[in-house]
Amino acid sequence: MEIDEEKHQETIPKNPNENIIRERHAEIVSGGNVFYNPVQEFNRDLSIAVLNVYQQRLTKERCEKALKKQRKQVNEPEATPPIDTPPTYVAGTQYADGLRILEALAATGLRSIRYAQEIAGVRQIVANDLSRQAVQSINANVQHNKVEPLIEASHADAMTLMYLSTAQEKRFDAVDLDPYGCPNRFLDGAMQCLVDGGLLLVTATDMAVLAGNAPEACYVKYGSVPLRMKCCHEMALRILLHCIESHANRYGKYIEPLLSVSADFYVRIFVRVHVGQAQCKLSMSKQSWLYQCTGCDTYTLQPLGITKPNPTAGNPQQLKYGIPTGPAVNTQCEHCGHRHHLGGPIWSAPLHNPDFVKDLLQAVQETHLSELGTQRRIVGVLSVVQEELPDVPLYYTPDKLCSVLKLEIVPMLKFRSALLHAGYRVSYSHASKNSLKTDAPPSVLWDILRCWSKRHPVRPERMIPGTPLQAILSKACTRDYEFDELHAAANPKSRRSALSRFQTNPAPHWGPGTRATIMIGENKLPKSYRNQNKKQRHKTSQEAAGPQEGPVEAEEEEPETEAHLPKQPKLEAATA
């Protein structure tokens, strides 16, 4: 697992400005030349919780599989003694039958050290990094935290390491990819080095690309075209899931999303990767194209494939695959008459596994995981995830809907009550505090707003022909909607309990950070502030140093006034 070691025999000078970073029971000694971001503690805590629950489920599955194989060998009937209780594991101890985990981009090794200390049932953790400085930091930190039996440091290219681990005895039970930016280059190798049913943990921090600011770049990286919508953060999750699924299908594998979270400046996805050619055929029906109206922002999904029961087959569970007819929309929007943008394909199947989320929430509340530093936030996010409608992709926001019609914004509880009284389901999305995820068709949403406009009418001068406002409000309401009587389910339990559902900015200058930088203290000052007016300040320093040697023609210069002086960056305001 070493690369070009002969070329790098010189030792790296010790940095005198070492920082001791403490997170839970782990301590990291770093001189500031390896990447660390404290804002990602939520990411690490959530990953530890997911891996603990996954390990328990995997152990139970393996026990059931072994018992079933044993019964088959001795020809015992299925309805014999119950399954033995799975063995219990303790965190910080090495087990021969435990998890083998790969952290492909380990940096300081903090995540791997915390995995070793806080995940029960671990066999080995491989902490890999391409940087020799990072690998030296990993070795020092592993020794400092006394977890040498569990962690093996690796100095290799992450893709090469994963491709060299495709043999059955070298594969990993879990692969954690937390790169700086886009993870797409690592997905192919991760699919090949995972065991059947293995867990893949993926982070993507290039949210500007995933959210629709650069659709051409998103297509190159993820094979999907994003649209600029209010639900861009959930769309980012679905684009990444589509990308992971497409990589899995190449090797006869498919994914099962356990949990998909949009948090802070990144998206984090936890999926199990299974082997199964038959299940791969369902992949086409889990992807959809997306039509977005350029006038009123109404969106419509069209699946790439459809499935239906095969009546001619003897097995009632056998499916017949087909291609849907389309397009799902007319040339012009049925609501406002404008044309459509086309985006996708995106993952349109559920983002989460409800049973897994339920077990995870229970574990974070009732077990040793309740001591995690961001436990309160994890409970809040998982509670909202549990309340989400699993079969409704994407969401609207009342402020965007009302801005199209220049209306006073409908209060969230009133909007939710109107939908619930009309017989539709509605929920929040964990990705936005103003989200409105509902199975009601867009025509019902616009009809509700037409009814709302009777109470809060639009000024007549805004009714301009050809605008979405005029096209939608010129139609009559089909029915009356109840706004005043609050529906019992309008205020969800997570909101009533005042859980920490949607996190505010955790710290000044929070974000993905700078490569190979400890994002604490003065090091977290962004490059954009440090480099502001950099050329002008350099020119000023040269002028202050005096003329260069050699004959220089004298030029008549105007006296410098305050207006001619270059503006200095306001670092004090930036760091306040």
UniProtKB/TrEMBL annotation:
GO cellular component terms, semicolon-separated: nucleus
Top-level lineage group: Eukaryota
Keyword terms of this UniProt record: Methyltransferase, RNA-binding, S-adenosyl-L-methionine, Transferase, tRNA processing, tRNA-binding
The EC number(s) this enzyme carries: 2.1.1.216
Record bears the keyword Glycoprotein: no
Molecular function GO labels: tRNA (guanine(26)-N2)-dimethyltransferase activity; tRNA binding
InterPro entries named in the record: SAM-dependent_MTases_sf, Trm1, tRNA_met_Trm1_C
One Pfam family in the UniProt entry: TRM
Organism from which the protein derives: Drosophila madeirensis (Fruit fly)
UniProt-recorded name of the protein: tRNA (guanine(26)-N(2))-dimethyltransferase
Gene3D superfamilies, sorted: N2,N2-dimethylguanosine tRNA methyltransferase, C-terminal domain, Vaccinia Virus protein VP39
Reactions catalysed according to its record: guanosine(26) in tRNA + 2 S-adenosyl-L-methionine = N(2)-dimethylguanosine(26) in tRNA + 2 S-adenosyl-L-homocysteine + 2 H(+)
NCBIfam families associated with the record: TRM1 (TIGR00308)
Similarity comment: family membership: Belongs to the class I-like SAM-binding methyltransferase superfamily. Trm1 family.
Region (Disordered): 69-89, 488-516, 528-576
PANTHER family found in the cross-reference section: N 2 ,N 2 -DIMETHYLGUANOSINE TRNA METHYLTRANSFERASE (PTHR10631), TRNA (GUANINE(26)-N(2))-DIMETHYLTRANSFERASE (PTHR10631:SF3)
One GO biological process term: tRNA N2-guanine methylation
